[in-house]
Amino acid sequence: MKIAICEDQREEAGWLKKQIENWGLRKNIPALITLYENAKQFWFDYGPEKSFDALILDIEMPGENGISLARQLRQKQDDVPIIFVTGAIEYMSEGYDVQAVHYLLKPVDKNKLEECLQRVYERLEAKEPPFVINTSQGIIKLTQKEIIKIESFSRYCIYTTLKGEYQVNISLKDAMKDLQKEHFAYTHRGILVNLRHVETITREQVTLTGGYTALISRRQYADFNKTFITYYNGGAE
Questions:
Q1: Regarding the domain with residue range 2-127, which homologous superfamily does it belong to in the CATH classification?
Q2: Does the reported pTM lie above 0.90?
Q3: Check whether domain 131-232 has CATH 2.60.40.1890, yes or no
Q4: Confidence class of residue 94 from pLDDT cuts 50, 70 and 90?
């Protein structure tokens, strides 16, 4: 998940970031978090090439407040899920105008924050159509977000997923035809990885969610690095 936090108090922003990262690790959900200190910073970065799966938005900020920022997003037809954080309960009624997911009163309760994140994640999952693979163990229903990597062997591919590993009698070229191409990239001639699950990149390998790794060829290293950076600086939702 790509999450933006717009919070002018650095200590609170850091605490939110840490809690989200911990939640992501426990749930096996990669979380990339971008911090903004005010609405001006957010708008400077905002555009078609920069998208988020959720926005955690402080209401009381210097300059433009969070309610105003949220209204402008909705006027732009941006339906990003918004979680407001505030120390003032009187703002809560205004959130209904911008379809906020939830209000969190400061000091933010960790469990309530995680409940909101889980709700947003489940909403995102529901948007993605099911993905079916015909494996040696039978028909398996997934979402593409659950695919970590696909490796090609002589007559089949191994799909490594959050649910396990599955052998499918298909070529890597044909497997790629059914995928949302903006989320996947080659690290090697016979290895395709889901960019949403990339954790670290070295010249020898890519580390993925769950401790899985994928070899990276010298030829692919520069292109893969560029693709990964582009993806997380404004890639697909």
A1: Response regulator (3.40.50.2300)
A2: no
A3: no
A4: low
